[in-house]
Design goal:
The protein is of the alpha/beta class. It is built from six helices and eight strands, in the order ααβαβαββαββαββ. The radius of gyration is 18 Å and the shape is globular. Bound molecules: S-adenosylmethionine. Residues 1, 13, 17, 31-32, 39, 61-63, 66, 83-86, 119-121 line the site of S-adenosylmethionine. S-adenosylmethionine is lined by residues 1, 13, 17, 31-32, 39, 61-63, 66, 83-86, 119-121.
Length: 221
């Protein structure tokens, strides 16, 4: 990811989020959501990956640290690190969360995390969406000791916004299988009152969530 930071598509993306921040200030709108409720509905799903109490948490594409606020409001005391490509977000994030760290990917080179969250980061259409998605997921999972939890827009919809990027959940499942055998795919929720879920979430675990029973040699009855 660090090598891709100066690509033209990233400059466009940085300008896009800067402009949202300038227009809307530190709000859900600067993070490109239509409401705080829908932003937090996504968090509600992603954080179900595990108990985050005391965990080393990375929020990749953290914006102004809304996930950190969400966790704090729910009494989750974790070691949170927020990473973003848009440095303009950091002063807002640091002012709200002086006890947490915020910076660019390069600032935390080599560090490991228990849980890594990625919400809304894959949604903007770019020239190289699929490469960005696979490269990002792969490199984040390498840094993960517990699980990677992320969302993306699903192709299982009746309308696609031309400015957004969609991927088939089954394709994501197949790709994650190249990284780990232990996967949860969630397409059982909506973030707005509508019948068709237009996004899905995935948890990629290092170890099985359900360990399975220990096999013991029982004498035949
Ligand atoms: C839709 S916003 C979501 C923000 C936050 N995750 C949330 O859910 O409130 C996407 C965020 O991802 C960041 N982002 C996009 N591409 C990135 C990259 N290559 N590296 C780091 N951050 C990136 C954007 O700057 C923006 O803050």
């Amino acid at each position: 990811m660090s090598t891709a930071l100066n690509e033209p598509s990233n400059q466009t993306l940085i300008e896009h989020y800067r402009s949202l921040l300038n227009s809307h200030g530190d709000t859900f709108e600067a993070a490109q959501y239509s409401s705080r409720a829908s932003q937090e509905a996504r968090y509600d799903i992603l954080v179900q990956v595990a108990d985050l109490q005391g965990a080393r948490v990375m929020d990749f594409g953290c914006g102004t640290g809304h996930l950190a606020t969400y966790l704090k409001e729910r009494g989750v005391d974790c070691q949170y690190t927020g990473i973003d490509i848009v440095e303009d977000f950091f002063p807002y994030a640091r002012a709200k969360h002086p006890d947490h760290r915020f910076g660019r990917w390069e600032d935390f080179e080599g560090e490991r995390f228990d849980y890594i969250f990625v919400s809304g980061v894959f949604n903007n259409r770019m020239p190289d969406n699929e490469a960005f998605f696979t490269n990002t997921v792969k490199r984040l999972f390498e840094r993960c000791d517990g699980a990677l939890s992320f969302n993306a827009m699903s192709t299982w919809v009746d309308f696609q916004d031309p400015g957004l990027w969609y991927i088939a959940p089954e394709k994501v499942f197949a790709f994650l299988k190249t990284l780990t055998p232990y996967i949860t795919l969630r397409n059982d929720y909506v973030v707005k009152r509508m019948p068709v879920p237009f996004e899905f979430a995935a948890y990629a675990y290092r170890a099985p969530l359900v360990a399975g029973p220990e096999e013991t040699e029982e004498p035949a009855a």
